[in-house]
Amino acid sequence: MAKRSALIVWGGWDGHEPDKVADLFREILEAEDFAVEVSDSLDAFADAEEVQAQSLLVPVWTMGEITSAQFDPVAQAVRDHGVGIAGCHGGMCDAFRTNSEWQFMTGSQWVAHPGNDGVRYMIHIDRSNPHEITAGLADFEVASEQYYLHVDPGVNVLATCDFPTPGADGPHTANPCRMPQIYTKMYGAGRVYYNALGHHRDVLEAEIPRELMRRGFLWAAK
Predict the structure, then answer these.
(1) How many CB atoms lie within 10 A of CB 135?
(2) What is the rounded average pLDDT of the residues 5-19?
(3) How far apart (Å, rounded) are the C-alpha atoms in residues 214 and 31?
(4) Per-residue pLDDT averaged across 181-193, rounded?
(5) Within the chain, where are the H helices?
(6) Cis before residue 180, ω within 30 degrees of 0?
(7) For a pLDDT cut of 70, what percent of the chain falls above it?
(8) Using CA atoms, how far apart are residues 141 and 188, in angstroms rounded to an integer?
(9) Whether the Cβ atoms of residue 103 and residue 71 lie closer than 8 Å to each other
(10) Mean pLDDT of all residues belonging to the chain
(11) Does the N-terminal or the C-terminal CB of the chain have fewer CB atoms within 10 Å?
(12) Pseudo-torsion of CA 9, 12, 17, 18, nearest 10°?
């Protein structure tokens, strides 16, 4: 059986430590026997043949702009060829804000993180929706940016957090909700996995967040 392969592309806003997060993802995937290519250029996405040959695409690119020549091969690989795509935090769902099809493919868009970095909040695993990605994992606390997202109603929500958190202020407090934080979806033939955690690498190095990324990668990979 051919070895599975993954392409990690990192860059964009430096505050999310894209190089360090990409290196962690490389470690996780290589431990699962993936052949991993890592690039710091979006032009890595422009090679349609190379992109379609992957089992998994892992974007780690907050904000920035993506050209049609760079985006179209990704969309086609996922939608038409069943290549998986998986990522976290702003590196996947605050990327390329002007590209609405990227948002459609990935399932959500960051709009706020009330309280900024260091907010303490709980991630609640959805027990009513059992899934191999979350099986046997407990709810856990994290101190980080708490992402408020605009979310595709078609995603399969695996974990949530509560808004607002105690002591919070701001306009979001008028609309208490359980916000999706971990989900899966399909984009055509391809599987999509997203985890809103990951403001810095250390958030993802904790035992449960790291395991959630590992399982998410395995689930999404073609």
Answers:
(1) 9
(2) 98
(3) 10
(4) 98
(5) 18-31, 48-52, 68-81, 89-93, 100-106, 201-205, 207-220
(6) no
(7) 100
(8) 34
(9) no
(10) 97
(11) N
(12) 0
**What is the number of domains present in the chain?**
1
Amino acid letter for position 129: N
Sign of the torsion formed by the C-alpha atoms of 14, 39, 24 and 113: positive
pLDDT digits over 103-129, tens only? Answer: 999 999 999 999 999 999 999 999 999
Q: Token pair for residue 213? A: 């990324």
CA atoms within 13 A on the CB side of 36: 19
What is the tens place of the pLDDT at every residue in 56-77?
999 999 999 999 999 999 999 9
- The shares of helix, strand and coil residues in the chain, as percent rounded to the nearest 5, are 35, 35, 35
Q: In the Cβ-directed half-sphere of 149, how many Cα atoms lie within 13 Å?
A: 33
Longest dimension (CA), the chain: 54
Q: What is the pLDDT of residue 32?
A: 98
Q: Are 39 and 8 in contact (CB under 8 A)?
A: yes
Q: How far apart are alpha carbons 16 and 221 in whole angstroms? A: 24
Q: How far is CA 120 from the centre of its chain?
A: 20
> What SS3 class is residue 154?
coil
Which amino acid would we find at residue 215?
A: R
Round to whole Å and give the CA distance between 75 and 54.
13
Strand (E) or helix (H) holding 10: strand 5-12
Query: What is the span of the domain harbouring residue 108?
Result: 5-220
Mean pLDDT of 6-21: 98
CA–chain centroid gap for 34, Å, is: 18
CATH classification at residue 119 = 3.40.50.880
